[in-house]
Every structure is written in C-alpha cells, then in structure tokens.
Hints:
- By secondary structure, the protein is α+β, with helices and mostly antiparallel strands.
- It has a domain at 26-88.
- 17% of the residues lie in helices and 48% in strands.
- The protein contains 1 helix and 7 strands.
- The strands form 2 sheets. Strands 1-4-5-6-7 form a 5-stranded antiparallel beta sheet. Strands 2-3 form a two-stranded antiparallel sheet.
- A hairpin with a 6-residue loop joins strand 4 (22-33) and strand 5.
- The model is unreliable at 1-13 (pLDDT under 50).
Amino acid sequence: MGYTSFAHRGIGTPGKRGFNACVAALTPLASITVPLGGQLLDLQEVVHAAGAMPLLRVRIREGKRFTVLDIDPASARSWGEAMVAWAERQPG
C-alpha cells in the first residue's frame, strides 16, 4: 500500500485553482473486513493541499452506504487507546 491517490472536488465544482482542483492527498493505511456484518473499514491518511494538519480518515462501507470520519491525531490516539483497552479485556 505504498501509493498515494488524490481526492478531487466533484465534477464541475469550481475551486481556487479552477474546476476539479486537487484538494487532498490520500494514503491508504489499512483495509479491514469485519467478519460479523461484513462492513469494510478503510483507514487513510488525508493531507490537504493547503498544508493543514494530517487527518485520519475512517471510511466504513455497509452495503451501498458509506460513513466517513476525518479525525485529528489527538482524537485518533484516544479512540485507538480505548479500542485496545477494550480488546485486551475480552476473552480469547
């Protein structure tokens, strides 16, 4: 997963650099399929072209429905620590 893709504004959407200007670089980090329920979890690093702080994008696909969360580093750390703590308390 060492490639970088680019997110673009919607077709015909004007931006400061004209139509369909590149607004962010996306770097895939992980892709996980949940065994119960079959949801697909994609984790990506989002780096905006304007130089804003990098964000962690959590993209959850459930059938045709998508939920996308862009999370700052401090929130990602807290969420990750809470998930690890929960997983460590589970049997097996």
